């Protein structure tokens, strides 16, 4: 989207008139660029007399702070994800160990059942009753 040009030909205006027109154009530009809530902040900046250099330093500082916060958030997220993956792997290993123990215990129980059945058969054949 191209914005229309805001060229104004002002023949023979005084210096104060030129400044008024420039201020009006700046205010119009701020209204077009800034969201509704930030216009109040811009008005306060005009009242305090901040220079362009201070705004540039503030913007640079804010951008730097944003990127540092963003990088720290990424590092913390990466650490949390790594910890969760570590816990998943540890849980999986423990579950494998428990499963192998259960399988071996199941085999032992089946062997005990077979031995119990053989003893019962032997007792039944010998005539001893319980």
UniProtKB/TrEMBL annotation:
This is LSME1 protein. The keyword Transmembrane helix applies. It comes from Nycticryphes semicollaris. Keywords: Membrane, Transmembrane, Transmembrane helix. It comes from the Eukaryota. Residues 37-57 are annotated as: Disordered. The chain crosses the membrane at residues 65-89.
């Amino acid at each position: 989207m191209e914005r229309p040009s805001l060229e104004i030909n002002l023949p023979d205006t005084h210096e104060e008139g030129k400044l008024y027109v420039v201020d009006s154009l700046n205010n119009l530009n701020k209204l077009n660029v800034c969201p509704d809530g930030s216009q109040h902040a811009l008005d306060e900046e005009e009242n305090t007399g901040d220079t362009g250099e201070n705004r540039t330093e503030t913007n640079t500082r804010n951008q730097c702070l944003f990127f540092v916060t963003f990088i720290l958030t990424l590092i913390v997220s990466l650490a949390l994800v790594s910890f969760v993956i570590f816990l998943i792997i540890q849980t999986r290993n423990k579950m494998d160990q428990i499963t192998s123990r259960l399988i071996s215990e199941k085999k032992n129980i089946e062997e005990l059942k077979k031995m119990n059945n053989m003893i019962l058969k032997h007792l039944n054949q010998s005539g001893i009753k319980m």
